[in-house]
Design a protein that fits this description.
By secondary structure, the protein is mainly beta. The protein contains 1 helix and 7 strands.
Length: 92
């Protein structure tokens, strides 16, 4: 299984922005779910298949996260870059 992977630290509501050169799956996974993914077992994630770039996914809660970009088993390759956009909502 070919995929791009990066482990990151996020605060709640931070947004992961992934710029893609082709449509691809962009998934935000917890450590446990990433292990499931690597083992080919069922897993849960935030994100999905993005036809348009950039892909933006909000962190459901603070912690260490795994960002995975893949083509869902399709042929080819994808290039991606990642940046974190802090939560900009104002509470008051």
């Amino acid at each position: 299984m070919n995929y791009l992977h990066q482990e990151i630290e996020l605060d709640a509501e931070d947004v992961v922005e992934v710029t893609l050169d082709h449509p691809a799956n962009v998934q935000l996974l917890s450590a446990h779910e990433f292990e499931q993914y690597q083992q080919g077992k069922p897993f849960r994630y935030a994100g999905g298949y993005f036809r348009e770039s950039p892909a933006r996914i909000s962190a459901p809660y603070p912690g260490r996260w795994h960002v995975v970009v893949d083509l869902g088993g399709g042929a080819g390759s994808v290039r991606a870059s990642l940046r974190i956009l802090p939560d900009t909502t104002v509470s008051g």
